Amino acid sequence: IAKRLEKFKTTIFTQMSQLAIKHGAINLGQGFPNFDGPEFVKEAAIQAIKEGKNQYARGFGVPDLNSSIAARFKKDTGLEVDPEKEVTVTSGCTEAIAATMLGLINPGDEVILFAPFYDSYEATLSMAGAKVKAITLRPPDFSVPLNELKSAVSKDTRAILINTPHNPTGKMFSREELEFIATLCKENDVLAFTDEVYDKLAFEAEHISLASLPGMYERTVTMNSLGKTFSLTGWKIGWAIAPPHLTWGVRQAHAFLTFATSTPMQFAASVALRAPESYYEELKRDYNVKKDILVDGLKAAGFIVYPSSGTYFVMVDHTPFGFENDIAFCEYLIKEVGVVAIPTSVFYLNPEEGKNLVRFTFCKDEGTLRMAVGRMKERL
Ligand code: GLN
């Protein structure tokens, strides 16, 4: 294996989902719904396939989808973007992240992440030859240590990556935090990359796109996807929105990574993004019920549960149960309790920092969530 990938193991999500199957445990680990996306979107995909929309799509997206993405971005942020010059459709947000890193980061550039961070950020930065600096967000509220962040910015800093709502903590970056980051970016000529795939799962606070702050659009790549919002994680439709000078880099990388994304699914994604607001309201209402079942159950089972404002994840401290670390706890949880969670130490540069923390997801039907919390209450 190439040196740039030597330190990365099979992703923790794959490992844990395999263990779930092996031990017949309830999977509250990897974040994928165990229910299906909406009928009208699935119908649109079937329709597109039947209508023969099956050859290569335009590299940066089928025009219809680029327009739907721009329209939704306008609704969400008030920003008017050119669908032809500032929107790039990718194979999931994961590809948008890779294309952004590979298209805009030079070897030796420094990029700042907030730990715990989603695993693909570090791996794609390694592919780009970048140096990673991590600022740790600490419980209970995972707020940004502003002074630490400020001193981390150096002359080599090329970008700061912000994921809000934040996986795995459920934290949402506040307006004050985003303003502080925006000022740092502007003063030091640093770019911002934002992963906003959970923007429609904002329960306790208002989601704010960093690009909408004054002077930020021109230095930000805003990334999002269809998977979480439409419970279609397997479709792998994502996108990056950025001003033309940054889109240039993203598109060049995208052109040589995947060239284009699945054509019929892009037509269906376009239909999905034109859903009425009531779709998003209902999604949130459903998820609120699920979240309460999981959070109440975890508390009753004896965990220290940290408040989650957004995403479909909840972070807990497992130390009341007396295990050495998150890996040992998760192993016990799978084998003896029959529930899978995600150990979080892999999301830090220094694994020690995550050893008390474990992530659970509530993107499962209510029966499954009740069964999982029932097992934990009984067997832990
Ligand atoms: N984003 C999903 C999660 O955090 C997993 C994606 C993946 O398996 N790579 O659970």
Automatic annotation (TrEMBL):
One of its GO terms (molecular function) is kynurenine-oxoglutarate transaminase activity. Its cofactor is pyridoxal 5'-phosphate. One of its GO terms (cellular component) is cytoplasm. Signal peptide: none annotated. Keywords: Aminotransferase, Pyridoxal phosphate, Transferase. Residues 26-375 form the Aminotransferase class I/classII large domain. This is Aminotransferase class I/classII large domain-containing protein. It comes from Dioscorea zingiberensis. The chain holds residues 78 to 457 of 460 of the full protein.
